Amino acid sequence: MAAQETSQSAIFRHAFGNVLSFTVLLLIGVMAFSIRLFSVIKYESVIHEFDPYFNYRVTQFLTKSGVYDFWNWFDDRTWYPLGRVIGGTVYPGLTLTAGTLWRILNSINIPLSVETVCVFTAPVFSAFASWATYLLTKEIKGAGAGLTAAALLAMVPSYISRSVAGSYDNEAVAIFALIFTFYLYIKTLNTGSLFYATLNAIAYFYMVCSWGGYTFIINLIPMHVLLCIVTGRYSPRLYIAYAPLVVLGTLLAALVPVVGFNAVMTSEHFASFLVFIIIHVVALVYYIKGILTPQMFKVAVTLVVSVGMVLCFAVLAVLIALVASSPTKGWSGRSLSLLDPTYASKYIPIIASVSEHQPPTWPSYFMDINVLAFLVPAGIIACFLPLSDASSFAVLYIVTSVYFSGVMVRLMLVLAPAACIMSGIALSEAFDVFTRSIKFHLVGTTQNPQENAGDATKVTQNDVKSEKSEDTVKERSSRKSKKKDKENIEKPSLVSRVEKRLLVLPLETSVMAVFLVVLLGAFYVVHCVWAAAEAYSAPSIVLTSRSHDGLHVFDDFREAYAWLSHNTEVDDKVASWWDYGYQTTAMANRTVIVDNNTWNNTHIATVGTALSSPEKAAWDIFNSLDVKYVLVVFGGLVGYPSDDINKFLWMVRIGGGVFPHIKEPDYLRDGQYRIDSQATPTMLNCLMYKLSYYRFVETDGRGYDKVRNTEIGKKHFKLNHFEEVFTTHHWMVRIYKLKSPRNRIRGKTKRSKSQKSGTSKRSTRKKNPWQ
Amino acid sequence: MGRSATTKDAHALFHSLRSAYAATPNHLKIIDLYILFAVATAVIQVAYMAIVGSFPFNSFLSGVLSCVGTAVLAVSLRIQVNKDNKEFKDLPPERAFADFVLCNLVLHLVIINFLG
């Protein structure tokens, strides 16, 4: 009777728990979606930043022309005159996902536009990501930890920063794919089922389609397998979790055109192949150990070790020779800059110049993961009690992601799920202890029917726990077979009795502790909502500022692109610095010279050289590229700090990296970068200075630059080879047109002119390839 | 002296391996034969590539990886079906075979797509 009652109450408790979990998960999904809507409420439903505009344009093309045209698309409106093979150089996951979503919604007669679907893809997938975190943490520790981790991930600011409504970038779906792949890997590891291994490979394929960060997965999982082998945790489940993933995963990765044969030829994947070989050797050794007697096994080991060593060394020597023959040891530039943080600044200035590739500052850790930063160590300790395969994976994940986040601020995003998992585990374990203590003190010893009569120490729930721990220890000892059976049976009753005393705290302490932990959670929530509303919701294509007479909106970028699309021919080429390439092609629909993809350093260096040269030289360069219009961004009138004059030194560096006649010290006075009267003549004559400050003195009479906080050096000058065609309302974007060459040269004849220029500056003429 | 001892040891080892392997049940031996066949096919393909050259590379990759893939999946099947493995004693062999078929289906779908 008692047994039936307890089983019924157990079923009821199970059902109630399941319904509660489901409701909580639904609420977490809704919260994850709504916290990312601040930018839509404060500004409008618009696509943010630079990269999302490219993805939006690709999605537009996909929805208009279909999958086959998208797969084979050659884009001739960027990187003029080179063009870009979009089908082979873009990660298709995001665009295919949004395109499919749009197609499904339209087929059930919900007529959302492509832009709306693109804007809201990221919040929807962040809800999915929090559910995936619940599943992953449930596999590691349990349902309670899972719910906590899901709630933390829904709000963590570092993930919000890359997935607000409007941030239509690869990370929006890639983080969901990352967590889901890890969940399926751990699930396969825990159950040993080949079905989950198949699903794991398919989820890995989705991750490869979505983001270049898939190399993190294909290096982390082999590291974990190696860790398990080395710590003696090899089991057949490990083999089933890893080996099919490597084969299927490599094939699936090779299917994606961006990766192609890199899946077998670059060093990023070699770790997986190495561990693949190692796990086969280990599996063979365990198998032979299983079928031989111990002394025969010892003989086998001595024989094999001597022969195997020689073979191993030979293979290793060949491998090392192959790898060392390539200058980067087979790694790509981006991956090398992750392993050696100083690599990019020495060899590839373009990678070094991107602001999100800089190392993060200490405060940015607190800004981005807040309270989790000091819950993570508690979570790491909780993972060790007890240590399982899944929790060792979680520890490895957090350690590697902390290292990589320290190299590049952009990778704080990969740290966020790991931090949430660890903090979820820590909070859940802490709550377990506190609520158990409160229950123990309040409920007392009379309620529980499973009490052991005559037990000196007060028991209740702790007794059930100790019985369970006895069973598990006995099972483990039987699986180990043969030795030390009797000793193990004596031990658990002692161990569990010691454990019982440690797990209960005094009542006042537990109540205080619960209150404090809830307060900690409240601080976290307040910070996350503030960060989402104030810090990470700016669309950066529309700027606002508050002053005493209300809110000012700076919509200059869209004004400039609209002017371009209405007042220029369809085939006109526009040159600007690479930051604005994607936006120009997407919004103004004009061909650009360089854009944010930055795949061709020489082309970017050409544009950089042109902007750093005097007017005539720049006109020659732009004319050779068929450029009609030049676009510069200028923030001096309103105080917008990310304008081209502030980025100018990078243009000089990148240009000087390919064309040696551009030297950075020529633009600096005593090592300082200035644009006032003390600036160098090279600086005052270069195209960027002239295009930014042309007629600037007419605004306030003395040409005061609000960003650099000085008056400009050269105030009154004329442009001979360019003419100004458009300046936006706040002077933030200025568009110039190349003047056509003069029909006749006045005064001296052309021959004497070339003789004159031949005598002076002959050395620079030789080095400058454009004259 | 030492050399004859090692050769004697090698002989003894070989005999004990042979006798221990003969004791495995027949259905496991069939799976082992299939694994051997798959690996042998892969070796033949690699030898052919070494003679003739690796163009087109995607066909070579898909051919070799399909052999290696079926070998790996057959090993996984063998692990799950082997009655000596205590971790999988609750798993019915039909379920193990169904998973094996599903994974092979996905593998060969990818292979056919990548074969060119």
Automatic annotation (TrEMBL), chain A:
Pathway: Protein modification; protein glycosylation. Residues 20-422 form the Oligosaccharyl transferase STT3 N-terminal domain. This is dolichyl-diphosphooligosaccharide--protein glycotransferase. Residues 464-490 have a biased composition (Basic and acidic residues). It is an enzyme of class 2 (transferase). It catalyses: a di-trans,poly-cis-dolichyl diphosphooligosaccharide + L-asparaginyl-[protein] = N(4)-(oligosaccharide-(1->4)-N-acetyl-beta-D-glucosaminyl-(1->4)-N-acetyl-beta-D-glucosaminyl)-L-asparaginyl-[protein] + a di-trans,poly-cis-dolichyl diphosphate + H(+). Component of the oligosaccharyltransferase (OST) complex. Gene3D superfamilies: 3.40.50.12610. The chain crosses the membrane at residues 12-35, 85-105, 117-136, 142-160, 172-197, 203-227, 239-264, 270-288, 300-324, 369-387, 394-427, 511-533. It comes from Salvia divinorum. GO terms for cellular component: endoplasmic reticulum membrane.
Automatic annotation (TrEMBL), chain B:
Pfam families: DAD. It is a multi-pass membrane protein. It is found in: Endoplasmic reticulum membrane. Keywords: Apoptosis, Endoplasmic reticulum, Membrane, Transmembrane, Transmembrane helix. Pathway: Protein modification; protein glycosylation. The keyword Transmembrane applies. The keyword Nucleotidyltransferase does not apply. It comes from the Eukaryota. InterPro entries: DAD/Ost2. One of its GO terms (cellular component) is endoplasmic reticulum membrane. The chain crosses the membrane at residues 33-51, 57-75, 96-115. Belongs to the DAD/OST2 family. Component of the oligosaccharyltransferase (OST) complex. Subunit of the oligosaccharyl transferase (OST) complex that catalyzes the initial transfer of a defined glycan (Glc(3)Man(9)GlcNAc(2) in eukaryotes) from the lipid carrier dolichol-pyrophosphate to an asparagine residue within an Asn-X-Ser/Thr consensus motif in nascent polypeptide chains, the first step in protein N-glycosylation. N-glycosylation occurs cotranslationally and the complex associates with the Sec61 complex at the channel-forming translocon complex that mediates protein translocation across the endoplasmic reticulum (ER). All subunits are required for a maximal enzyme activity. This is Dolichyl-diphosphooligosaccharide--protein glycosyltransferase subunit DAD1. It comes from Salvia divinorum (Maria pastora).
